[in-house]
């Protein structure tokens, strides 16, 4: 081969490689999300009332159904994929589901709970099995109403979107927390993790049977670093780690994540057409909390919005709480001055700034298994 032919050949190879690389970008026309408050964009609020101001103040400038001062990881994810912020399935007024729906509600668990919202800990009745039933109903009726045309056609996903969509999950944290709220020991909570994950696997299988192919699964965060967990439970008997978190709660969360990863490996074998990405948000959240200063944040274990105490968290006077003084309502669950440098919003949830920081780290796949970026998460392997 002479030089000219060789260089032509090299150019041709480069062109092919480039087109292959770009053609591998997935086109996700919709997102269907399942989860808890980490990704609730208005579900619990539609069922039980809106969290009041100052929620939403940093971005929406009014409460927006989110337990946050602004956007959640799922909002940044939607923005990155070029689809509108997801409406909650339960949100009947003004919603547009043409590019997906959000079934997550604050307080949701994978397993149905025996206690109700207003008892210990406030767990949601919309556990993952209920969220799946809602999805099932949504898919079935979308098909019926799509065929009616008119406004329905612009408000509901096209039939083919259900197989092309990205199915996202961030759930499990409350299954662990529920045990502690019921005064269970660390070992008792650890012991039911396999049952929780068995139910999680079932739901992924059901969605696959309904056409879902691309799955994006967040592992659970360091629940032992959340102000409400540190504050609420007598932890004299617990070890605190160097970051000031309850070590034993985090160890159970890591055990959950280890088992979740094994569940994902098993699901990949059982569901041959599924691309399942496991995303390690635990490590990022822990890094953000344990090295907050390095990442440009302050006071990672104190809530930005709350009312007093070491962690600025008071179970009875939450973020947005008001009292009446001489017939006048006064806000006493107030926000800090600059939420953009705080990690924790209200003692339970992360700030918009923290959510954005985590999203910016996960988007390129460096915390994923397999390690491929978000916009390639429809592929089984690179
Ligand atoms: C709820 O109660 C039933 C019956 O006592 C029990 O079998 C089940 O495990 C409980 N569920 C949870 C999540 O604790
Ligand atoms: C719903 O949203 C889609 C995408 O943003 C838009 O094209 C459509 O017109 C909207 N439907 C209505 C009724 O507003
Ligand atoms: C857990 O223990 C505390 C303190 O002993 C008690 O007040 C609470 O009612 C117990 N919660 C449950 C669910 O048993
Ligand atoms: C992914 O993004 C993060 C944050 O921008 C960056 O630090 C990291 O080096 C990137 N990793 C890869 C593999 O590109």
UniProtKB/TrEMBL annotation:
<dbReference type="GO" id="GO:0016788">
    <property type="term" value="F:hydrolase activity, acting on ester bonds"/>
</dbReference>
<dbReference type="InterPro" id="IPR035669">
    <property type="entry name" value="SGNH_plant_lipase-like"/>
</dbReference>
<keyword id="KW-0378">Hydrolase</keyword>
<comment type="similarity">
    <text>Belongs to the 'GDSL' lipolytic enzyme family.</text>
</comment>
<dbReference type="Pfam" id="PF00657">
    <property type="entry name" value="Lipase_GDSL"/>
</dbReference>
<keyword id="KW-0732">Signal</keyword>
<dbReference type="InterPro" id="IPR036514">
    <property type="entry name" value="SGNH_hydro_sf"/>
</dbReference>
<feature type="signal peptide">
    <location>
        <begin position="1"/>
        <end position="21"/>
    </location>
</feature>
<protein>
    <recommendedName>
        <fullName>Alpha-L-fucosidase</fullName>
    </recommendedName>
</protein>
<keyword id="KW-0325">Glycoprotein</keyword>
<dbReference type="InterPro" id="IPR001087">
    <property type="entry name" value="GDSL"/>
</dbReference>
